[in-house]
């Protein structure tokens, strides 16, 4: 049985893409670049912000354009209400149940750590996470296993006692690089290619299906 559950944030615990698309398109329009629809933006997700910027800008992803878009987007995003960014139904209930069972909980994401913490404080203030390891400019981002390794070390468990829960191919690679099992959720931003990956322990349709591993 597992003792540590490490969650991805975007597309796993929180439905966050709509606010990201709104703010990115506002930034793109402000700078005179072509906007993206929701489906087009899905193909850009998974990496850290620089990797997303590069995909969003396509053949216009020069260092100057990327820096301008990053600065404009972050200013718009951090000053927006982000009213569309909400926990997926059942996520809070699962975390509470796991916590009651004595399971250690953590988050590892390519979203900035302070952004994750702001949503956790707002929606999950009764959940005690061992560590929230988001993207920081001085450390490698997913699929590097560094974040997971930090969490496992702080939790004091072995890799075999941990499981990573995410929705994307990046999450699977991250778990694989860290040498831990991976569960994929189907309500996020992944697709059939992700769900059929041989490394995945199980693809789940509901949060309740995760409980049996603990």
TrEMBL record:
| One of the GO BP terms on file | DNA repair
User: Out of the domains of life, which is the source?
Assistant: Archaea
Where would one find the signal peptide in this protein? none
- Which spans are transmembrane here? none
Give a GO cellular-component term. cytosol
Recall the GO molecular function terms of this protein's record. Answer: phosphoglycolate phosphatase activity
Q: Which family does it belong to?
A: Belongs to the HAD-like hydrolase superfamily.
**Name of this protein:** Phosphoglycolate phosphatase
State the organism's lineage. Answer: Archaea, Methanobacteriati, Methanobacteriota, Methanomada group, Methanobacteria
């Amino acid at each position: 049985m597992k003792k540590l559950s490490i969650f991805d944030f975007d597309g796993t615990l929180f439905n966050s893409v709509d606010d990201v698309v709104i703010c990115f398109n506002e930034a793109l329009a402000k700078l005179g670049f072509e906007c993206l629809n929701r489906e087009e933006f899905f193909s850009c997700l998974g990496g850290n912000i620089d990797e997303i910027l590069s995909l969003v800008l396509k053949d216009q992803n020069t260092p100057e354009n990327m820096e301008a878009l990053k600065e404009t987007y972050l200013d718009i995003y951090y000053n927006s209400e982000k009213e569309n960014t909400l926990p997926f139904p059942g996520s809070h209930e699962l975390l509470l149940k796991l916590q009651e069972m004595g399971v250690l909980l953590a988050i590892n994401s390519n979203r900035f750590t302070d952004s994750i913490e702001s949503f956790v404080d707002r929606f999950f203030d009764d959940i005690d996470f061992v560590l929230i390891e988001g993207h920081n400019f001085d450390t490698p981002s997913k699929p590097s296993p560094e974040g997971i390794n930090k969490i496992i070390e702080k939790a004091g468990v072995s890799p075999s006692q941990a499981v990573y829960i995410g929705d994307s191919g990046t999450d699977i690679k991250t778990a694989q690089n860290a040498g831990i099992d991976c569960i994929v959720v189907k309500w996020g931003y992944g697709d059939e290619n992700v769900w059929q990956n041989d490394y995945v322990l199980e693809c789940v349709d509901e949060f309740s299906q995760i409980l049996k591993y603990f």
